[in-house]
Amino acid sequence: MNVGIIGTGNMGTILIEAMIESFAIAPSNLFITNRTIEKAYKIKEKHDEIHVELSAEEVIKKSDLIFICVKPLDIYPLLKPLQAIFSKDQCLVSITSPFQVEQLEELVDCSCARVIPSITNRSKSGVCLVTFGNSCTNEWRYKITELLLRIGKPVEIKEEITRVASDIVSCGPAFFSYLTRRFIEGAVKQTKIDEHTATILAQQMLIGLGTLLANGYYTLPTLQEKVCVKGGVTGEGIKVLERELENVFEQLFQATHEKYKEDQDLIAKQFSL
Questions:
Q1: For 122-135, what is each residue's pLDDT tens digit?
Q2: Domains of the chain (ranges plus CATH)?
Q3: What is the CA radius of gyration of the chain?
Q4: pTM (2 decimals)?
């Protein structure tokens, strides 16, 4: 199976690296392109057998499964002139949340799906969110699922929870990286610990926390209970978090959903022109 990647930005590159390192796809079966073609050639420097094409059209012609890894508002103008190139035997996958699978199906006459990856897939872990279109054949559903199992845990979701699921899976690492950085900065400002030491300790704490959860030793609530001894230091810290965070995460989801709706409206306008 030949796989095409249109767009080699952050997520496109993560997919490429994860698929190669997990042996899901051989480099010789990958056909890639990017608007700034030098970025695609940079990947080829590391994986010489990858095929760099000078246009999206060439990637589509030479691939069975095509991942379109460009910004939401760039998908329609990219695909519209190339509609006739797709064949019924191919499968087109978008990795961006605002562009609905049904909209892909309006543009191309082949199997369609959406896969929202996470940066955690770079380490062959975490979740890949999947939504299959009505046009997606059982064969392609199976092939996509098998491919994603190599780089993470595929979880099929319905359209109505796409944004919140993506917030948790795809944006979550950035959100919790930010919180961890603030955690480290607070420690450095309030105590004699240096940033380097605090960073090492925080990183190893997160790795250990992830391992505890992955191995099923604790759930999130039971873990908190084990650490938070009544009347102890941890409890005092939890009180501060409860007071200061209050509805911060509710506001976070409101902000991401507002941006999501804005992008969806702009995409809908492209189809109405």
A1: 999 999 999 999 99
A2: 3-157 (3.40.50.720), 165-252 (1.10.3730.10)
A3: 21
A4: 0.89
